[in-house]
Amino acid sequence: MNQEKDKINVKILDEMVKMVMRQTELTYDDAKEKLIQEKFNYLQVIKNELGIIHKKENNTVKNINQETYSQIRKYMDVASSNFRRIQEQNDKK
Fold first, then answer.
1. What is the value of pTM for the model shown?
2. Chain-wide mean pLDDT for the chain?
3. Which among 14, 42, 41 is positioned nearest to 29, based on CA atoms?
4. CB-based contacts of 19, cutoff 8 Å, min separation 6
5. Concatenated DSSP letters of the chain
6. Which candidate, 14, 20, 22, places its Cα nearest to that of 43?
């Protein structure tokens, strides 16, 4: 049972290495080494080789108060800009 499982794992690793090789210009040994470094995350290996940088957005709200005040600020900004626009239109008439 254990040998069978090892054979399956070796076959999966071999397929992952071949997939990385098809998508990049890495050799078999380099692809295998990078897969091991990235904990067998083939997408990350391919993205790193192609120079694709993953950006993490820092738009997270830390607590409910921040979200509340953020929404209030946005609402007040929109209301203020609408008021100014209406005042300018009235002055032109």
1. 0.55
2. 88
3. 14
4. 42
5. -HHHHHHHHHHHHHHHHHHHHHHSS--HHHHHHHHHHTTT-HHHHHHHHHTPPPPPP-----SHHHHHHHHHHHHHHHHHHHHHHHHHHHHH-
6. 20
Which tens digit of pLDDT belongs to each residue from 12-53? 999 999 999 999 999 999 999 999 999 999 999 999 999 888
Distance of alpha carbon 28 from alpha carbon 30, whole angstroms: 6
Per-domain residue ranges of the chain: 2-50, 56-93
Structure confidence by residue, pLDDT tens digits, 46-84: 999 998 887 776 667 678 888 889 899 999 999 999 999
| Range 44-81 burial, b when 16+ CB lie within 10 A, else e | bbbbbbeeeeeeeeeeeeeeeeeeeeeeeeeeeeeeee
